[in-house]
Structure prediction request, 134 residues.
Amino acid sequence: MSGMGEIVHPLFRSIGRGLAHHCPHCGKGALYGRYLKIEPVCGACGHALAAYPADDGPAYLTILLMGHLIIAPALFFPIVWQSPPQISLPIILTVLVVIALTALPRLKGGWVGLMYALQVTRDDAALHTADAAD
Ligand SMILES: [Zn+2]
Prediction:
């Protein structure tokens, strides 16, 4: 049994390390050099972290999760839509931005961990894009 989709690296361990802003390969090195900037290679084990495609997925995931887990549930609280919008809207938007900026690096890290576990690299992504263009 081998081929695409075979899980070589433990899925949840890889995602967990990414969520914690750590290299999915060794769990020790830092994933980010600065906010949302993934290190080219892990400082601890030298694993090529930049090899994993993490451009659109994490942002999409953040919006999806926020919509389902935060915005939709928030509408169940009458205070959210009964309070005057000039008061509630700036508060709500500020909270959402803070949550998004907090969640994005974690989700992006988890995403890289997922790509690591599934062994999907930028080369694969380019290949798939080329296939779709045919
Ligand atoms: Zn590492």
Observations:
- Residues 85-118 form the longest helix (34 residues).
- The radius of gyration is 18 Å.
